[in-house]
Amino acid sequence: MKATVQSNDEQAAPAVRVSGLRLAYDDFLVLDDLNFEIQRGEIFAIMGGSGCGKSTLLKHLIGLRDPAAGSIHFGDEDFVRASESERRRIQRRFGVLYQQGALWSSMTLAENVALPLETYTRLKPARIRQIVAFKLALVGLAGFEAFYPAQISGGMRKRAALARAIALDPDILFFDEPSAGLDPVTSRRLDKTILQLRESLGTTVVLVTHELESLFTLADRALFLDAEQKRATALGSPSVLRDDPPNEAVAAFLRREAE
Amino acid sequence: MPRGGQAGFSVDAAGARGHRVVLSGVWTLEAGLPPVSRVVDALRAEGAARACVDSAAVDRYDSALPAFLFELAAAGKRGGIEITEDGLPGDVTRMLSIARSVPARGDAKRPGPSGVVEHFGYAIVGFLRSAADLLRFFGRGITATGELVTGRSAMRLRDFTDVFVGVTVAALPIVSLISLLVGLIIAFLGAVVLRQFAAEFAVAYLVGYGMLREMGAVMTGVIMAGRTGAGFAAEIGSMRVNEEIDALETFGIRPYGFLVLPRVIALSIAMPLLTVYANAVGIFGGYLVSEFMIGIPAPIFFEEMVRVVGPNDFWLGVFKGYVFGIVVALSGCLRGLQCGSGAGAVGVAATRAVVLGITLIIVCNAIIDWAAATLGI
């Protein structure tokens, strides 16, 4: 939340700074020479066609994989070279919404949202219940505490996963294809929720998507990844990129044209 | 209250808009907050019907503050006190309005048993349903076999041979080990007991009779329930989770003929063969004990055995193997097809398959023994 204190110099640094990043699976190069910054409170989209390495980049940003070269800074902290415990401390400020929701199927929705709170705080059960009820209400799932993920619809699962992602008031929210597998109405509703949450929580949002509707609704700026060049080929506001595309691939992607 | 101090509240007497609840201090996830009930109790003690929360004196906060206010308003409503907010920071007001924009679904609470009697009732109904499911499943097996005979089944020969090889060749090492040890154990037990009557030679009867009629088939059945039955349930269960079963059904392919029948037929042929093999290994184990512990040489051991143990005993064991094969395959497939959705459901299906398989083996064994004794086999 905006009112939570943060030291002044930390306020000044961008939320995320990526420089010279190279991503590879063993010898197979996925992306190279990535340099970009994500400002605090910004909704930043990572876009590109299938197989361009969007999800791979996200996995590196949240620390599930280590880059082959380059650095990722969160605030002033070097994430790539951080020790295991420092990394966990940085990761505590993340909230991640996975493509399929990734709710833990053996737990109720309340237990899913409560687990990060139980892990990272020493709150009493009554306080945890209070926060869980509120987070579920924020995503429009008030009263669904006792349900298991298998008992609710796909759209509700996504929203429940969002409640889990914001359980600890994260500084940065990562979304992997938030509209994947959702109907247009549900998907727009989720977009709206994301916008509302950004507005009220002041959270920085990093969004991986190939869905143009979400891209134009949500993103302040977008990074375009090119599968053939294995590089980022454009960075800017989605509507500006659409009206004045820097290259053919970006033009085709944003104007829904097949090459 | 000093700024930056602990989260606290005070209730001011009624003004024009009712009582005021003044919040102060630090209201964050990590901070210790007063319980909602204490605020409601304080308001009730003042006899408040309406109250307004003033958070202007709150020093620092995160989503813990709106979470508290969200619960407070609901608790107040339940207690007959209308609680409103005043002077909240903009982002807190926005969050509260988002949270309240979709009202709580009162009917969303999951129905379930409460109390011992209800639990007991649910358990009995569950058991009866399970028994009915099993009977129905068995009945469908008969019709599916009919379809197979008349050439209308979806069963593929490849499925049958794959399963057959998987349940026979791959199971030989574990069946060998267990059968050998069971033969040894029967002989050890017999040697200790029969020595007291100077009748050690009768170990040969005990081993032959025990392996052929009971232990060969039962132990193989139990091994197959744990190994193959659980495997069937996990395999079909994950197909259920991945919607592969639904895909079969939408193509008009009946899962029974396609998935269940090859497994049941393969196991009903494999189990008698494995039983015969287990009998041979078990008898060999018994022979080892009598040769090296009791000192009965091979010719006498086997001569004594065939004097008492006849073809009836052999065929009874083989028949049991056949029945257990069907039972194990059916329980595995049934639990697999009944699998719920989610990752945990597959594990549950496998466990239930093993429990059902072993239970049915013991029950069927008792029935067959009783029938054999009655018929004098």
Largest sheet of chain B: 4 strands, mixed
What's the alpha carbon Rg of chain A, rounded to whole Å? 18 Å
Total count of helical runs of at least 4 residues of chain B: 12
Mean pLDDT of chain A: 85
Question: Going across the major beta sheet of chain A, what is the strand order?
Answer: 6-7-8-3-9-10
Report how far apart the termini of chain A are: 44 Å
Order of helices and strands of chain B: EEHEHEHHHHHHHHHH
User: SSE string of chain A, helix = H, strand = E?
Assistant: HEEEHEEHEHHHEHEHEEHH
What is the overall shape of chain B? elongated
| Count of individual helical segments of chain A | 10
Given as residue ranges, the uncertain stretches of chain B (5+ residues, pLDDT < 50) are: none
**Helix and strand composition category of chain B:** alpha/beta
Shape of chain A: globular
- Number of discrete domains of chain B: 2
* Structural class based on helices, strands and sheet pairing of chain A: alpha/beta
Structure description:
The complex is a heterodimer of chains A (259) and B (377). Chain A is an alpha/beta fold and 259 residues long. Chain A contains 10 helices and 10 strands. Chain A has helices at residues 8-12, 54-61, 84-91, 109-120, 125-138, 154-165, 184-201, 212-218, 238-243, 248-254; strands at residues 16-25, 28-38, 43-47, 69-74, 77-78, 94-97, 172-176, 204-208, 221-226, 231-236. Chain B is α/β, with parallel strands linked by helices and 377 residues long. Chain B folds into 2 domains: 8-108, 2-Layer Sandwich (Transcription Regulator spoIIAA), CATH 3.30.750; 125-375, no CATH class. Chain B is built from 12 helices and 4 strands, in the order ββαβαβαααααααααα. Chain B has helices spanning 36-45, 64-78, 90-101, 116-149, 157-168, 172-195, 203-241, 244-250, 255-294, 298-308, 311-337, 343-375; strands at 8-15, 18-27, 50-61, 82-86. In chain B, strand 1 (8-15) and strand 2 (18-27) form a beta hairpin. In chain B, helix 2 crosses helix 3 (90-101), helix 7 (203-241) packs across helix 10 (298-308) and helix 9 (255-294) packs across helix 11 (311-337). The model of chain B has no long low-confidence stretch (mean pLDDT 88). Chains A and B meet through helix 5 and helix 7 of A and helix 2, helix 3 and helix 12 of B.
